[in-house]
Amino acid sequence: MAPSMRYLIVRALLFIVPFAVLMIAKVPWWLSMIVALVFAFAASIVFFSQLRDAAAADVQRMREGRRRAGAGPDDADVEDAALGEPEVTDGTDDPDASARR
């Protein structure tokens, strides 16, 4: 599982568990939400810094176009191979192209 997905799951659980416990204890929903948010934020900062750093690196790697190990082929590459060559546009689909001519 990708580090960014693990971090998302951990953060969600850090919120859901205290929120559920406080709701069972009959604490008002708005106070339960505030306490659960503060708890999730503090716990993720203090205890999960390595996971947060790994998730940040994973997101950065995805944004830069590098794929994770074991990832399948990129959709654009598969589509280009099926068409035979990449699509080349002449700018006619650009609404501002006529204003620049």
Offer a concise description of the structure.
The chain has 101 residues and is mainly α.
Task: Describe the fold and architecture.
- The protein is built from five helices and no strands.
- It is mainly α.
- The radius of gyration is 23 Å and the shape is elongated.
- It starts with a helix and ends with a helix.
- It has one domain.
- Helix 1 packs antiparallel against helix 2 and helix 1 crosses helix 3.
- Helices cover 68% and strands 0% of the residues.
- The mean pLDDT is 82.
Show the helix and strand layout.
Elements: H1 3-24, H2 29-47, H3 49-63, H4 75-83, H5 97-100
Helix pairs in contact: 1-2, 1-3
Transmembrane segments: 7-25, 31-51
InterPro entries: DUF4229 (IPR025323)
Pfam families: DUF4229
Count of discrete alpha- or pi-helical segments spanning 4 or more residues: 5
Oligomer: single chain
> Quick one: overall form?
elongated
Percent of residues in helices comes to 55-70%
Order of SSEs: HHHHH
Indicate the structural class: mainly alpha
Distance between the termini: 50 Å
Task: Please tell me how large the radius of gyration is.
Answer: 23 Å
Count of individual beta strands: 0
How many domains make up the 3D coordinates? 1
Whole-number mean pLDDT: 82
**The biggest beta sheet, please?**
none
Strand percentage lies at: under 5%
Query: Segments where pLDDT lies below 50 for 5+ residues?
Result: none
